[in-house]
From TrEMBL:
EC number(s) on file: 3.1.26.4
Organism: Hemibagrus guttatus
Residue intervals of the Reverse transcriptase domain: 130-363
Cross-referenced Gene3D superfamilies: 3.30.70.270
Any one GO MF annotation of this record: RNA-DNA hybrid ribonuclease activity
Family to which this protein belongs: Belongs to the beta type-B retroviral polymerase family. HERV class-II K(HML-2) pol subfamily.
SUPFAM superfamilies listed in its UniProt record: DNA/RNA polymerases
Name of the protein in question: ribonuclease H
Amino acid sequence: MTSFYTRLDTREGEKDLYRLARQRDRDGKDVQQVRVIKDRDGRVLTSEESVQRRWKEYFEELMNEENERGKRVEGVNSVEQKVDKIRKDEVRKALKRMKSGKAVGPDDIPVEVWKCLGEAAVEFLASLFNRVLESERMPEEWRSVLVPIFKNKGDVQSCSNYRGIKLMSHTMKLWERVVEARLRKVVEICEQQYGFMPRKSTTDAIFALRILMEKYRDGQRELHCVFVDLEKAYDRVPREELWYCMRKSGTEEFKVEVGLHQGSALSPFLFAIVMDQLSEEVRQESPWTMMFADDIVICSESREQVEENLERWRFALERRGMKVSGSKTEYMCVNEREGSGTVRLQGEEVKKVQEFKYLGSTVQSNGECGKEIKKRVQAGWNGWRKVSGVLCDRKISARINGKVYRTVVRAAMLYGLETVSLRKRQESELEVAELKMLRFSLGVTRLDRIRNEYIRGTAHVGRLGDKVREARLRWFGHVQRRE
């Protein structure tokens, strides 16, 4: 056991440390696996066989939903031209972008194998990928995927509240990285799309929305925002619609017989292409329309205009196979006057809210950020509980514990705060919460009368307020370099 803790204190053992933290978090939960599920009529299934049959039925329906758009492609001709052979430098770049330590697919070959083999792997993979191009057929191993189920919010016994993440062959993901790099060179995505785009992040979209809301609040004018939710967005993209959008973008055509999977390296960019083409006629300039993959926010100066824009978006998306969720789409009015009413979608009232969690950051209709500060504190405590088994382990050095704390807990507390104008009271609220966590981790209380500076020094962390300012300056530099 002593040698185990000694290894954790080395650079090589740091990954084992995070695995240990995740395992201890799982071991501390009462329920780690849902063994019962409801069928389509609401009856609870308890036997293992019936539960498996229900999951199979659910995913077959979800992934093969009948859609008229999926049966035809219209209006755009194929773009057929010579496709250059895949070069070794393309494979090297793709291999460099692949992260290690990820779950493997059905072939059980992790990307670490190819990384260890070096140039021999690059040469072999380039040859393999070129054979795939020439034959227009993928290896059978790439067609199989494992689908672990992850819980979303809602009823734990309802299939619709879970999502499947496909575990695919790492070799296939390398192939997808090469294809993605080529697509990005020839396809131009609109400026309103912030998701999975180079030099853009959630911070940019959150900041743009907050600034817009603050401007209208300061000018004593109403701003109407609708946050559009798409039902099972990735799973609902018809295959033929994907080909239509790619042809319209002018990409070279060759067969790739694998769809838009969550877990695929290529899916995010393919989805961005689809959304770019589907929204071409209805989107407005940023920040009046902003997209982060399937997260869409539509803003306008009047309720009537935002309602009209929402209906146009619904029509544009649903005629191409996507579906707007009326129950999850929400409306918010900034600086609302009395009796401004609500927004309707196909005759039904859209839920009106005073706050909304946009890309993980809470925005309020009054333009304040008090709720967001409380959410950051809560996120910090949630992160602390997940790794408390490590942070409170006295056999692990303070240096390593400090790194775990900064990576898991502090990162959760700092998320999105670059976009928030913090008051002294709010900054103090964050620092008080952090010091409580650090004292718990070190096994001391305020009765021990240990100064805050000593607590931070022992845990190897700086003042949280200073880190917020650092993050703000870092993001400002990123924006300046982009311009």
